[in-house]
Specification:
Length: 230
């Protein structure tokens, strides 16, 4: 039986091709680690900042120990859909603000099957439903990029048991934009019981970004470099 034998030249060519493929795969898998991410932007003049998360470590946990999550109205009878889905599958996306590598990003759609259809994403400050007192801070900043639609930033708090949380309405810009919000400018939507802001800040559970209005055939929103301000 004849044997198939490669010449040394052909073997060398194959070895080079295999090495090139391996290099390319590793480069794609770890391209964000080729160089360190840029330093965080300086805080606003006259203020200091405490990092909640810049997503650069690539996991779903923030600097306070809580984790990122996404949500939609399907648990309430709707059929809006967010991607990625739920708690366990969240992973930072490529392409952060200010030249960084990672961000938190959702896509999806919002329907009218639920009359107040919605999707959103957020990050718990600790384990779920474990409030944190953030009264030592007076504001929040983050970078935001999206589809030009309106979103509601809110602080989910033990101080608003009916879920009429303090928040702030924003339009997502098409390019990465720094957003700075003083806590004194937050307000409730008004359909629930009036809550005291100081009490709300004493027991914050999570920070969330949620769609406003419906329907929306497509949703795309990204946030990055979330920090509390003093």
């Amino acid at each position: 039986m004849a044997r198939f034998v490669l010449s040394p030249v052909k073997m060398s060519i194959i070895a080079v091709i295999i090495a090139a493929v391996i290099f390319l795969v590793l480069r794609i898998a770890f391209e964000e680690q080729v160089s360190p991410p840029p330093p965080l932007p300086d805080p606003p003049a006259g203020r200091t900042a405490v990092l909640v998360d810049d997503l650069e470590d690539g996991d779903r946990y923030n600097e306070f120990g809580g984790w990122w999550f996404t949500y939609d109205d399907r648990h309430y009878g709707g059929d809006s859909k967010v991607s990625p889905e739920g708690f366990g599958v969240f992973k930072p996306s490529k392409g952060g603000s200010s030249g960084s590598y990672k961000c938190a990003r959702i896509t999806g759609r919002v329907t009218t099957t639920h009359p107040d259809g919605f999707i959103g994403m957020g990050t718990d400050l600790r384990k779920p439903n474990n409030p944190v007192d953030i009264r030592e801070y007076n504001g929040i900043e983050f970078w935001m990029k999206g589809d030009g639609k309106t979103y509601w930033l809110k602080l989910r708090s033990a101080g608003t048991p009916d879920y009429d949380d303090y928040g702030y309405e924003l339009v997502a810009p098409s390019e990465w934009t720094r957003i700075i919000i003083d806590f004194e400018d937050l307000h409730q939507e008004g359909w629930g019981k009036k809550a005291d802001l100081d009490e709300v800040l004493s027991g914050v559970i999570s920070i969330t970004w949620q769609t406003v209005g419906q329907p929306h055939e497509s949703i795309e929103l990204a946030v990055d470099c979330i920090r509390f301000l003093k």
